[in-house]
User: Which sequence fits this backbone?
C-alpha cells in the first residue's frame, strides 16, 4: 500500500513537471546554453588586442617588428598614430588596449648592433589582457633579437650578444596589477544585476500569487503609476549597494577613484533602471516565484561571463562578443572602470551611456506592454 501511494505521488510530480512548459524548457535548454557560454567565454589567453602604433622610424626594420606583433595574433592594429599624444589618447579612451611606440633611431641602432628600445603602453585596468600583452611582447622581442643577430654573428664566429630589441613595458592605471581594483567595478555591476532583477521579478509575481496585484489593478491607478511605485524603492536599494561597494573598495582594497563621483552616480541611475526593466519583463513570462528565480538566474549567469567582468571580451569568439553587447552590465562595467580607474569624463563614456538609454527605451516600453497583456485584463474593463 505504501509503495503504491509513493508511486502515485511520483507519477503526479512528473506530470506536474511535464505540464510546466517553462520549467521543462529550462531543464533542457539551460544546461546546453550554460555549457556553451562557459566553454567559449572562459579563456584566459587573450588575443586580438586593439593596438595603436606610432612608428617614428618608418624603416624596413620597424615594419618588420610591427609585422611580428601582428603575426602573433595578440595585437590587432586599429590606429597608426602621428604622435605620442595620439597613442596616449587612444589608450586612455579605451579605443586601444596597447600602444606601441617605435623611436626614430630604431633602424640605426639595429644596424649598428646596439640595443634598440621600443615602448609598449598597456591599459592595466584589465589584468588578464595586460598580462597576455606583456608576455606576448616579451616573447616577440626575444625572438626578433635572435632573428636579427643569429645569422650575422654566428657566421662571423662571434658569440651571441645580449638581446638587441628591448621592449620597455609601461602598465597604466593599475601598474601593480592589483586584481581587486579590476574586479570591484565588475562586482558592483553584478550585485546590482542579481539583486534588482531577482527582487523586481519576484515582487511582482508574489503580489500576483497573493491576489494583491489584482486588487491594485481594479483601482483608478494607471499601470505606469503602479510600476513606478515598485521601481522607486529598488532604485534606492541599488544606490545603497553601490555606496557600500565603493566604500569597501576604497577602504579595504585601497582602490582609487580618479573620476567624478557625481558623474558616476548619475550614470548608475540608467543601469539601475535597465535592470529593473528586465525584472518587470521576466515577471510577465512566469507563473510563480520559483520560475521567476530560475529565469533570473538563467539570465544573470551569462552576464558574469559575457560582460568582461572576469574574462576579457577580446578572448571570446565573435558571436559571444556580440551577445555581450546586448547586456547592460557590459556597458556599466566599461564606464565604471573608465571613470573609477582611469579618471575618464563623460566624453569617454557617452557611448556606453547612450547604449544603456537605448536598452531602457526598448526594455521598459516592452515590459509595460507585456505587463498590460499579462495582468491588466484582470482589472475592471481592462481599461488601463
Assistant:
Amino acid at each position: 500500500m505504501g509503495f503504491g501511494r509513493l508511486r502515485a505521488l511520483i507519477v503526479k510530480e512528473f506530470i506536474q513537471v511535464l505540464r510546466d512548459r517553462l520549467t521543462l524548457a529550462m531543464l533542457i535548454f539551460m544546461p546546453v546554453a550554460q555549457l556553451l557560454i562557459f566553454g567559449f567565454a572562459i579563456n584566459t589567453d587573450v588575443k586580438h588586442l586593439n593596438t595603436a602604433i606610432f612608428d617614428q622610424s618608418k624603416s624596413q626594420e620597424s615594419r618588420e617588428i610591427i609585422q611580428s606583433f601582428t603575426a602573433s595574433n595578440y595585437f590587432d592594429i586599429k590606429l597608426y598614430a602621428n604622435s605620442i599624444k595620439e597613442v596616449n589618447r587612444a589608450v586612455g579612451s579605451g579605443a586601444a588596449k596597447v600602444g606601441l611606440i617605435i623611436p626614430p633611431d630604431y633602424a640605426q641602432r639595429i644596424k649598428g648592433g646596439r640595443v634598440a628600445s621600443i615602448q609598449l603602453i598597456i591599459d592595466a585596468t584589465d589584468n588578464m589582457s595586460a598580462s597576455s600583452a606583456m608576455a606576448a611582447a616579451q616573447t616577440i622581442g626575444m625572438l626578433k633579437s635572435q632573428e636579427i643577430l643569429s645569422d650575422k654573428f654566428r657566421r662571423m664566429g662571434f658569440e651571441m650578444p645580449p638581446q638587441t630589441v628591448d621592449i620597455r613595458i609601461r602598465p597604466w592605471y593599475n601598474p601593480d596589477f592589483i586584481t581587486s581594483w579590476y574586479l570591484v567595478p565588475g562586482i558592483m555591476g553584478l550585485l546590482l544585476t542579481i539583486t534588482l532583477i531577482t527582487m523586481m521579478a519576484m515582487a511582482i509575481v508574489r503580489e500576483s500569487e497573493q491576489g494583491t496585484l489584482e486588487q491594485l489593478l481594479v483601482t483608478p491607478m494607471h499601470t505606469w503609476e503602479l510600476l513606478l511605485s515598485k521601481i522607486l524603492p529598488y532604485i534606492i536599494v541599488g544606490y545603497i549597494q553601490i555606496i557600500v561597494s565603493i566604500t569597501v573598495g576604497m577602504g579595504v582594497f585601497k582602490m582609487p577613484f580618479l573620476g567624478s563621483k557625481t558623474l558616476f552616480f548619475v550614470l548608475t541611475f540608467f543601469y539601475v533602471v535597465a535592470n529593473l526593466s528586465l525584472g518587470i519583463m521576466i515577471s510577465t513570462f512566469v507563473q510563480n516565484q520559483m520560475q521567476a528565480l530560475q529565469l533570473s538566474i538563467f539570465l544573470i549567469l551569462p552576464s558574469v561571463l559575457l560582460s568582461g567582468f572576469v574574462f576579457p571580451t577580446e578572448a571570446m569568439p565573435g558571436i559571444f562578443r556580440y551577445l555581450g553587447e546586448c547586456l547592460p552590465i557590459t556597458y556599466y562595467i566599461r564606464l565604471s572602470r573608465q571613470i573609477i580607474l582611469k579618471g575618464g569624463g563623460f566624453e569617454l563614456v557617452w557611448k556606453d551611456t547612450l547604449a544603456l538609454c537605448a536598452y531602457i527605451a526598448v526594455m521598459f516600453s516592452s515590459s509595460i506592454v507585456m505587463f498590460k497583456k499579462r495582468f491588466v485584463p484582470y482589472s475592471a474593463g481592462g481599461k488601463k
Observations:
- The beta strands are 49-55, 75-80, 98-102, 116-123, 165-172.
- Residues 179-210 form the longest helix (32 residues).
- The CA atoms of residues 377 and 383 lie 8 Å apart.
- The radius of gyration is 27 Å.
